[in-house]
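FIELD: query
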Amino acid sequence: MTSLPPEIEDRRIRAKAWFEDLQTRIVAELEALEDEASPELFAGAPGRFDMRPWTRETGVGGGIGGHLKGRLFEKAGVHSSAATARFSPEMAAQMPGADKDPSYVSASISLIIHPVSPRIPTVHMNTRFLSTAQSWFGGGADLTPMVEAQRSQEAEDAVQFHAALAAACDAHHPEWAQKYRAWCDEYFYLPHRKETRGVGGIFYDRHNSGDFEHDFAFTRAVGEAFLEVYPKIVRRRMTETWTEQDRMEQLVRRGRYVEFNLLYDRGTMFGLKAGGNIETILSSMPPMVAWL
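FIELD: result
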């Protein structure tokens, strides 16, 4: 495997350290929410994450998969990973800089949270660093309310979520909020349903402004924005009651989640083709789902 320049390895080390620190803080916040959940609405003991280290079967590296089955969060996964490996010829043809050398380094954090309550939105977030002969960041976050009353862009949760991510973008470039929100709406779209997966957020890929420090700071801001805003949404909704009709609506919306992740999601395809950990890649699948 061809050695990449030392500065690229240093960037990967720094990104890896950041993503793992963010993972630790998100895990702690979700466990705190488990503790706060009302036993009248959420029976059982507060859930705790099962942190499972794993090692790549190809290349060098691995990660830490954080898995939770709780009383507030029916299923949550908060995972970090890092790798030094080589793209297959098929993947190298699709990656900037990989035509010169298919070696790459990467680091990432990804999460999915499926709450028990239909009143609490499902959320997804990931950020990553990847470098071939070129380096870039990618990622974003998107919110998926489960019940019809919350699926409007004007609904309180959507407004708060978009505002937090817009602030993270605006602190680094005045055009990124609009650009990456539009990209999110375009990306998280199910053509066969002619509908978006949720109310959106931001999405960006192959983000390289030419200034690594600026782009790294932006990616950190996205992670911080998620950690600030999603717990606020959960705390507002976790005291609300729900009906069996709400629950069925939630299960059907989760079906859309499955359809998108298995049919269209590039991250899922990348992980499977790049030798990632199957358990963490497919942890985005909801624990219970329905199609009517």
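FIELD: remark
The chain has one domain: 6-284.
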